[in-house]
Amino acid sequence: MSALSSWFRARLTVPWDTLRELTNEPVPNHLKHWWFCLGGTPLYLFFVQVATGILLAFSYQPSTRTAYESVRYVTEQADYGWFLRGLHRWAATFMVAAVVLHQMRVYFTGAYRKPREINWIVGMCLLLSTLTLGFTGYSLVYEQLSYWGATVGANLADTVPFVGGFLKRMLLGGDAYDEHTLPRLYVLHAALLPAATIGLVALHVAILRLQGVTEFRCATEPRDAPRFFRLFPDHVLTEITIGLVLMILLAVLATIFPATLGPRADPLSTPEVIKPEWFFYVAFRWLKLFSGTAAVLSLGFVLFVMFAWPFIDGWIRRRKPESELSVWIGIVGVLAILALTVWEASVEH
Amino acid sequence: MDEAKLDAQDREPDRRGFLEKLAGWTMTGGLVLAYGTCGVMAARYLYPSRSRGTRWQFVVQASRMGLGDTLIYRSPAGERVTVARQGTTGDALDFIALSSTCPHLGCQVRWEPSHGRFLCPCHNGTFDSRGVATAGPPFQAGQSLARYPLRSENGLLFIDVPLESIATLDEAG
């Protein structure tokens, strides 16, 4: 082992000890709480998605004539295809949930505040890329609900003022969903968005490393408790444990509730009951409450406020330093999202 | 000889520097232009070309439809168009041709005879028999079901519809 190690060391003249010191940064003690380890979870799930996604891509054919049949082949014929598809689907669900929970943790602990505004914005971009990955991925199945989901999504883009028409045409590859659409969604889902996500994650982690994790002390902690622990092996072990638990969960869910396949897309008839993926329930219910442009503009406004929140919060705190307004706004926001999601989930129309 | 060369260099630093800068900027400019052209071509390649337009198609012999009759016309693009007769003057204005695509977000509406309305299952938009929105997001936005132009010639009814879409491709395949 040491011979092999010295063989490499002789050829790769890297300052190993410096590198070890640089990467093994002290981790604040609060990261021993599971709640604070949610940031690594989406990253782990992203690796699962890349691995299972590459395997699924071996069989998937992105054309209106073949897409549904190729998914059916994966689900019903290919050895363990049902399992891989189940893993991919459940990991997608978990990834969205983990990203949202991580963002909530960051929000409610105020970890987005100066000097971490930039990383909050990078995180918001990651939230959007995760949601878009979910949307494009589901559209590839080319079953009834995913076809109509994509149609609604594209027409929704059309209602955005000024650039809407351009967005819709770029997404669909024409005026309406046609044979140019699935290749576009596929390239987005399997190439552009994963590449963007990898870049954003690298930036997210690089900024985190530059600034260090926010230091945070729990009220229940004794005053003289050690403030830091080591990344290697302590925190890495925590992440490995999370990875193992997630893998078991994903495998169990993919086995008990495998990914299903609805009826093939029929461009001539919209199903009686139509729902998007659960993480779009909020937006879908919102669309039922307001007319197209009003709904899109208000959703755009909410997104803008989310992006700009560190600066809005800073402005509030400069005026009222003790203000807890951000917490209350957060609670109202989370309750509103929960309420709209449950509402949409509990009714047919 | 060497001294003369050095002297020449001393006398010409400005010209030499200028030429070096000029060469640098020209090459950078050339690169930007070349890659920029490729970028424009890539953008044009990605932006979809316009659809192939519409064409007048025969629907039905006008006299075969009585007042209040409706028929479902399948366009070459595969869309279901509801054609109804709502008058008896004898020209194309007697007829109405309604698209089945909801103007809100593009789902297919269905006719509900018991309620006398079209319902869009996506966001609960409803339309009356003339395609005018009566409830839901299309009503709030004042959107109606799209109407296709109709023309009557020698007692034959023609409709102006798009020619190609995914539905026809699916059937062909």
Walk me through the topology.
The complex is a heterodimer of chains A (349) and B (173).
Chain A (H helix, E strand, L loop, with lengths): L1 H10 L4 H8 L2 E3 L11 H18 L9 H11 L3 H28 L8 H24 L3 H15 L5 H9 L8 H31 L16 E3 H26 L24 H9 L2 H28 L5 H22 L3
Antiparallel strand pairs in A: 1-2
Helix pairs in contact in A: 3-5, 3-10, 4-5, 5-6, 5-10, 6-7, 6-9, 6-12, 7-8, 11-12, 11-13
Chain B lengths: L1 H10 L1 H34 L7 E8 L8 E5 L5 E6 L9 E5 L10 E3 L4 E3 L6 E2 L5 E3 H5 L9 E4 L2 E7 L3 H7 L1
Antiparallel strand pairs in B: 1-10, 2-3, 3-4, 5-6, 6-7, 7-8, 9-10
Walk me through what this model shows.
The complex is a heterodimer of chains A (349) and B (173). Chain A has 349 residues and is mostly helical. Chain A contains 13 helices and two strands; from the N terminus they run ααβαααααααβαααα. A two-stranded antiparallel ribbon of chain A has the order 1-2. The longest helix of chain A is centred in the middle third of the chain and has 31 residues, at 181-211. By secondary structure, chain B is an alpha+beta fold. Chain B has four helices and ten strands. In chain B, the strands form three sheets. Chain B has a four-stranded antiparallel β-sheet. In chain B, a hairpin with a 4-residue loop joins strand 5 (110-112) and strand 6. The longest helix of chain B is centred in the N-terminal third of the chain and has 34 residues, at 13-46. Chain B starts with a helix and ends with a helix. The chains are: A mainly alpha (349), B alpha+beta (173).
Distance between the termini of chain B: 83 Å
Overall number of strands of chain B: 10
Residue share in β-strands of chain A: under 5%
Count of helical stretches of chain A: 13
The coarse overall form of chain B would be elongated
Overall outline of chain A: globular
